[in-house]
């Protein structure tokens, strides 16, 4: 028989639930504003009634967004999908491979090298933008897709996180059994190691996808051709013009709403890999 809840426990539970509700409201408030504001024209936005659905014109805003400047917005959208999708996928593979190597193999200077990786975690990416621009200029890839793609292939935090996942998910016995059966090291990693550490791969992918999708400073430094812009830089350019031309406001707001969708889809569709990974190793 359960004990009755005391007033102290009741107040504690109420305080915790209240704090959670406030946190949810705080996080969802910008999204709700974005959803309702995307249905307004420039006059409705400037009038300050963005939270009402009066004068609903979402279809018109989407149409104008698709038609403006020969549909350059969706060209930016495709660029962002390329930068974030391909960049995050390649970065996740590199990070997991590096983390697997740090966990499985013993080599000279291993911990010192890993210390350098941890040191890289402490360096902000904005501080590296100018050196990377100078390197890209020397190689001759400034103002190309490679100028944004190559720098996002390496993520020190992803390497660190991958080593932690490998230590928790990959038993040495499974690797030894594969080697005894005649599998080479690449086959062991690809068929056993990578599959076992898939929750870690998905985690690194989502972190990197979000970081690259929201990346602003690196494309700002590297790119000058508008056709190469990602969404973040393109919407910033429109927003800068909105002060002089208010007709840009509906384009910026509607474009920002569509820009949120890939992040939501990625997290919702890949969360099952996290759930599956929570019970890994719990049953022998």
Automatic annotation (TrEMBL):
Compartments, as annotated in UniProt: Cell membrane
Mode of membrane association: Multi-pass membrane protein
A Pfam short name: BPD_transp_1
Chain segments annotated as transmembrane: 12-35, 81-101, 113-134, 146-171, 192-213, 248-270
InterPro entries: MetI-like, MetI-like_sf
Species whose genome carries this gene: Streptomyces litmocidini
CDD domains reported for this sequence: TM_PBP2
Annotated PANTHER family: ABC TRANSPORTER PERMEASE PROTEIN MG189-RELATED (PTHR43744:SF12), ABC TRANSPORTER PERMEASE PROTEIN MG189-RELATED-RELATED (PTHR43744)
Domain ABC transmembrane type-1 residues, every copy: 77-269
Family per record: Belongs to the binding-protein-dependent transport system permease family.
Keywords per UniProt: Cell membrane, Membrane, Transmembrane, Transmembrane helix, Transport
Full protein name: Carbohydrate ABC transporter permease
